[in-house]
Structure formats: C-alpha cells, structure tokens
Amino acid sequence: RSLTALHLARSSGKSQLCYHPQMVMDVLRRQHFYNLLRDAMDEKQFYLAYQPIFDINQKLVAAETLLRLNGPNGAISPAEFIPVVERTGMIHDLGEYVLQQAFQDFSSLYRQNLESPLILSINCSVHQLEHPKFYPYLLKLFSQHIIPPSQVKLELTETVMLNSAVHLEMIKKLKDLGVMIAIDDFGTGYASFTYLLDIRPDVIKIDQSFIRKLAQVDKPDRDNERIVASMLTLARQLGISTVAEGVETVPQLQWLQQHGCDYIQGYLLGKPMPFVEFEKVVKYSTSVSGSMESQENIL
Ligand code: C2E
Ligand code: MG
Ligand code: MG
Ligand code: MG
What we know:
Blueprint: H1 2-11, H2 21-42, E1 47-55, E2 60-71, E3 74-76, H3 78-87, H4 91-112, E4 119-125, H5 126-129, H6 134-144, E5 152-157, H7 165-177, E6 180-186, H8 193-199, E7 203-206, H9 208-212, H10 222-238, E8 241-244, H11 250-258, E9 263-264, E10 273-274, H12 275-288, H13 293-296
Parallel strand pairs: 2-4, 4-5, 5-6, 6-7, 7-8, 8-9
Antiparallel strand pairs: 1-2, 1-9, 1-10, 2-3
Helix pairs in contact: 4-6
One magnesium ion (MG) is lined by residues 184-185.
C-alpha cells in the first residue's frame, strides 16, 4: 500500500520525494522478510535438522545441527535468513533456541546410549560470541543436561572478521571449559591462515567449494587437489582435525581417505534430516557396528 502511495505522491507532483521504485521495492521486501522471520520466531517455526558426520572408516561419530524454516512458499535457506537475523540482532534469541534444542535432543540420545556418545556440533555465529548472555547461557545448559563440554563442538560461521579481543577472549573461555572449536568453511572468506594461529581451533571444516572439485574424472583440477592436500598436511602438523564438507561422490571419499582427512560429511553418507530420523540412523549404526560394519560401508 505504501508503494502505491509513493507512486501517487510522485506522479501528482505534490511531493519532493523521489525514490526509485526499485529501492522502495527492496526496502519493502526486506521489511516483509524481517516480519516473516520475527513471526517465525514468535510462533516457534524454526526447527533443527541433523546431518551425520563420519570418521574416515564411515563410523558415525558426530552430527551437525542446521537451522530450518519453512516459509509460505516453501523452505527458506539459512544462507538467506542467517545474514538477516545477524543484522537485526535476532541471532541472539535464535542462537539460544538452537543451543537449547540441540542440548535437549542430544540429551535423549545420551540417555539411550552412553557407550559411544556422539559429538554435538553446533553452528555459532561470530556475533553470538559478543553477547554477554552467550557464555552464561551455555553454562546453564551444561548444568541442566548430561552432555559434557568435551562432547560439544562450536562451528564458528562468519560474516564478519573474527579477530577482536572480545572474540578471542570468548574463544579462550570456551576452550578452557573444554568445548571444541571448529572453523567452518575453512579456506574461503575470512577463514584464513591467521585464524590457525590466533584461534588454535580443534577442527577445521574444509569448505565444500574445494571438495566439490576433488577427483573429477572428466576434468581433474590438480591445483585444487594440491590446495586440499596442503590444508590436510598443515592441519595435521598443527594437531588440528579435519572435516571435509559436501562429500557427494565415492571418488571424493576415496581421495580424502588417501590424503588423510579425518572426518567426512556430505550427501554421499547422509543428508540433513529431522531429529526423529537422525535417531533412527543412530540406532541403526549402533546395531550394525562391529562385525557388520565393513559390509555396510560404501567402500
Ligand atoms: P555450514 O555450516 O557450512 O553447513 C553446511 C551446509 O552444506 C548446510 O547447508 C548443509 O545442508 C549443506 N550440505 C551438507 N552436505 C552437502 C552436500 O553433500 N552437498 C551440498 N551441496 N550441500 C551439502 P544449509 O543447511 O543450507 O546451511 C547453510 C549455512 O547456514 C551453514 O553452512 C551455516 O553457515 C548457516 N547455518 C545453518 N544453521 C545455522 C545455525 O544454527 N546458526 C548459525 N549461526 N548458522 C547456521
Ligand atoms: Mg557448519
Ligand atoms: Mg561449512
Ligand atoms: Mg557455510
């Protein structure tokens, strides 16, 4: 309605306002999207998906939580809404929801199977680290659930540079607590070599853009393979574990096995799924572990 009003104002010459219609559309669309996200928060429409993470022998060892939201026209990607919730400060409430839900879900897994507990890997925006309530909230969750800090990994995803004293201090506190720190999307954006020294992460997750170009039969990309091979070597020399993200093919998996990657994540071995589905995967993987394991493996 306000767009029409502006058009009218302009065409009737009564106003000096002269916004380009495209600009107006952008503002309205952004406002609409913001309202949609705000409502989704209020109505608790966000939920978590879990994607399994395997060791190099395809044993299930961890899961990554991924936020999901179904909008009026279908699923909305976190790649689309996370930057908006970060800009508007909603990330703090949403981040608390993610932590709380993940702890709750994983507690039920832990109660069922204490022998080989999985690692819970949670995405955490760099902005969340700046919030004074972040650390106390995490402490509260640890006090309320049976999950020990050593089983939790925070994947630092970033849309801003992670280098302020506030960030580094918080990361140190988290590590002192025993929580593992992973650098997500390693090798892209800001996630560079200086991080390895400043943050001393436990894990790096090699970005999918590198994994996608591994072991391509039709057009091999040797330079890309050299880069991934050196990331793996560098990480090993620094005592940092490696996860390959976005593994989709058997040749990629074989390549990573041959080059000493520690952990594998991707559609080849498991897609993100609702928690109830993930529970079944966990039960199945515990029941086939041992003698059956090698038969169940892809390789
Ligand atoms: P990410 O943390 O790097 O997560 C990996 C993304 O790759 C996920 O996309 C996952 O669904 C997708 N993926 C996994 N395996 C494959 C594969 O084999 N092939 C392809 N093509 N894609 C694969 P998703 O769920 O859309 O999430 C996108 C990004 O949104 C995440 O990237 C993360 O940066 C952010 N995100 C998701 N959930 C949260 C959250 O709870 N908090 C924060 N701060 N960020 C989140
Ligand atoms: Mg991640
Ligand atoms: Mg990633
Ligand atoms: Mg990403």
